[in-house]
Amino acid sequence: MTGQIDPRARWETLWRRLWAFSARLDVTAGLLAVLVLLSIIGSTIPQRGLDVAADPQRAAAWETALRAKHGAWGDFLITSGAVQFFQTGLFLLPWGVLILFTLLCALHRWPTIWYSLHRDTVRCTPVQLHEAPHSASIPDTDRATWEQLREALERDGYHVHIEMDVAGWFLRAERHRWARSATLVTHLAVILMGVGVLLNLQLGWREELAIPVGGSALVRHADLPVHNTAFEVIRYPDGNVAAYEAHIRVQETLARIRVNEPLVYQGIGFHLSGYMQIQDRTVVVLQVTYAPGYVPLIVAGFLMLVGMAVTFNMPFRRIQACRTADGVLQLGGWADRRAYGFARAFETLVQELRAGKGTQLT
Q: Which of 16, 81, 168, 310 could make an S-S bridge to 182, C-beta 3.0–4.6 Å?
């Protein structure tokens, strides 16, 4: 029946449009700009920590102080949920969209990159080479010119493949071939970064403990008892303070922690924050943190560094050539847009091969 739209075709069209939309660089840049803007907005709003929210008494005291300072604005922040802005859908949704679009973009690019990495075809036609972004034609060449081309490319670090038969001589030379996969590495880094941020926002927490020497405290989020067995101030021979050292016991684990030398127990970090004297008693202050997204964020940072370094410092280059039976040598060159010196290098190579024959670079 004419005039009807197949629902399946409609969904396929919608999916293709979403697929293409997710691969656009301006869309990703827009999402990142939105996330930066939301982060700035969230950082200007007083945030109620998860450790405060978990304690009704501390939460009530925190809200009272906020209302006393900001009045009606404080009431609005509390009732709207803005005091936990980084846990709201307004902030989490763009992160989810960024992860989804990055994944779709990686899937969109993967077939093309995979084909380019495993394409070993050496044969080509003069028409294909003439239509390349960089091309040149050199007449009346011989075996010496062909060997000169091969040696020049190998000297410049190209991986050269050659096929020769009665139909002609064919050459394919590539440099930094596998570097094209670096874009997938950076996509994976963005996905891991988003996952790490979401894990920290949804499952992570921070809690402060003040434990007198010889006393104990309970980590409320993990129902974990912590005992402070000793505290020591280490001094230099001249009497100046060298370091602070606390001895704590978590369950059956005994540990000595210093500033920047925390204890990590079952993924929970115990950091020495400071100490204070209260009625001749030393009270040690510990920052207890749980950040399940820490490892994904570290891995994401490493992958991003590797991917960007490869992308900007190892741009892909390809030169192909064929020599027909009449002695005409046709050259074609392709390169990533970051290969800034490729055009000049290609022209220099052509000029060396022309050997004064007067052929013009096309």
A: 310
